[in-house]
Structure formats: C-alpha cells, structure tokens
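Tokens as discussed.
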C-alpha cells in the first residue's frame, strides 16, 4: 500500500484530479496479494467496473477491455478459467462488436523481444490462447507492460492487431534484444509514455520520449 502512495497516487495526484485512470494489475501487485488472492491497494484505492481485476467499459466509439494476466499460478489466461470465458463473451458481445475500436490492456506482453538479465520473449500461454482471440475479433490495439522498453508491431501486418509494449515509465530499462518476432517491427530501449488519439476513422499512437 505504501508503494502505491509513494510511486503512483502522490506523483499522479494532479493528473488524477481531472483525468480518470484505470489499472491493469501486474505481477508485482499480486506478489503482495492477500491469502484469498485479492490486492489490498487495488481494493482500497480503485473502483473499477465488474470485479475490478478484469473488466470492460465504453468511452465514445471505443471499447476498453482490461485483463489480469497474474491471477493464475503461471502468467497468462487459461482457456479453462472464468476470465477466458468472460473475455470470449465480451469480445463477441454487442458492446465490443458495435464499437469502432477495441483496445485491450494486459500486464504481460503476448510477444516481447527485449529484456535484461535473462532470456524472455513474451508469454507462451498468451500466444497460444489469447492472440487468436484478439485477431479473430479484430482488436485494434493490445497494450502491455512488464518489459521495460517500447515495442510495437502489427500482426497480420497492415490489417491485424497492433501489439504495444509501453514499459518505459520510470523503472530501470531493459537493454537486450533476445528474439526477432515477425509480430514486432519496432523496439526502443527508452523512457517514454504513449498517447493515443481516436476519431471516427483513424487511431493515432504516439510514443513520446523525454
């Protein structure tokens, strides 16, 4: 809880006075979870739709879908679990199919080329189970963190899901490229944040460095 105050709530206090923020839980949040799997800080400081750990909402012409890839013992989302069934229903449901754009947020990346101290190339469970769902339902962009760099790719190229890793928010940067995925076309080991603008016919993603 104290880390949330020091590293999230206090630095972002002016932004959050006027801007809604939503959280996709990550592995470090779950490291400090209670015995029942709940995260004390998330329960105290956030008020998300649904169960608060994976949820969806509509803003304008876009559908936003937030997942929790750390709920299970291994990173990913099991096709036998409740979250996977929920995601299937969400992507096939009216709110998502009627939206002009669909954005998915998950902490662990589906594909990753960068890391630092050991080999890492994304999460196999997400590649096997979640990527086909995102591609089949024409998700616009899938945002993740975990890897401390910026990565971008579209698969299938020109028509498919845009996979974005935006992990350059302040922690030590990763520095080694371990894998050359066809799904990833850009890797940059720089501090940055991402800004996305949406209108009726176009989505523009900008990665902004210091």
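Sequence:
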């Amino acid at each position: 809880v104290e880390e949330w105050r020091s590293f999230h709530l206090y630095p972002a206090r002016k932004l959050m006075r006027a801007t809604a923020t939503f959280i996709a839980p990550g592995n470090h949040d779950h490291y400090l979870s209670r015995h029942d799997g709940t995260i004390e800080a998330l329960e105290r400081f956030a008020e998300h739709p649904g169960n608060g750990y994976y949820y969806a909402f509509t803003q304008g012409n876009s559908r936003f879908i937030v997942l929790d890839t750390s709920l299970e013992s291994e990173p990913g989302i099991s096709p036998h679990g409740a979250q996977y069934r929920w995601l299937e229903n969400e992507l096939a449901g009216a709110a998502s199919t009627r939206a002009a754009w669909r954005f998915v947020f998950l902490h662990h990346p589906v594909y990753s080329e960068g890391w630092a101290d050991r080999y890492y190339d994304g999460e196999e469970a997400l590649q096997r189970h979640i990527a086909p769902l995102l591609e089949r339902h024409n998700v616009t962009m899938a945002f993740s963190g975990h890897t401390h760099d910026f990565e971008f790719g579209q698969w299938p190229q020109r028509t498919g899901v845009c996979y974005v890793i935006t992990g350059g928010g302040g922690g030590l940067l990763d520095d080694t490229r371990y894998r050359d995925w066809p799904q990833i076309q850009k890797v940059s080991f720089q501090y940055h944040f991402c800004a996305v603008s949406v209108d009726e016919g176009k989505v523009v993603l900008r990665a902004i460095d210091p």
